[in-house]
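User: tokens in, sequence out, please.
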């Protein structure tokens, strides 16, 4: 039980790190959209749209009231639902955002934009953190599942 709580606390810490990344990248995006080269790029607009969806899903899964409830109740079903409905949906939106950013970077004017370079680096950090979040949830689900079988 103690190990599971520690894993859950690690997961919540990762989600807070991801929250910080999102906040910083939102500031970069806000500055970047004032650049007409970026604002008129279809791919960059697609990146911004999918990144916004990713952030929305992340905030729904990371919301501190929901996280606090997970710490207190720690039920397998809640963790499974979190993984299925929010975290994986966030990861999907992140992948779509990254795809659009990669397409936008193919345009020479955009590729050399310092804000896009920072966005690209930030997205790589977020992608790595998102994978750790998913892995942590999967570990928690696996460690919680045998206990549920014993109760039945």
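Assistant: Sequence out:
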């Amino acid at each position: 039980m103690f190990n599971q709580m520690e894993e859950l606390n690690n997961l919540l810490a990762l989600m807070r790190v991801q929250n910080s990344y999102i906040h910083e990248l939102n500031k970069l995006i806000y500055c970047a959209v004032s650049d007409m080269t970026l604002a008129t790029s279809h791919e960059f607009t697609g990146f911004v749209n999918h990144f916004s969806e990713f952030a929305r899903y992340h905030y729904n899964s990371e919301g501190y009231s929901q996280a606090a409830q997970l710490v207190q109740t720690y039920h397998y079903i809640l963790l499974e639902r979190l993984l299925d409905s929010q975290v994986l949906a966030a990861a999907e939106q992140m992948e779509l955002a990254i795809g659009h950013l990669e397409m936008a970077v193919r345009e020479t004017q955009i590729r050399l934009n310092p804000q896009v370079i920072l966005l690209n680096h930030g997205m790589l950090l977020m992608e790595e953190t998102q994978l750790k979040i998913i892995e942590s949830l999967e570990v928690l689900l696996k460690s919680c599942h045998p206990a549920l079988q014993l109760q039945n």
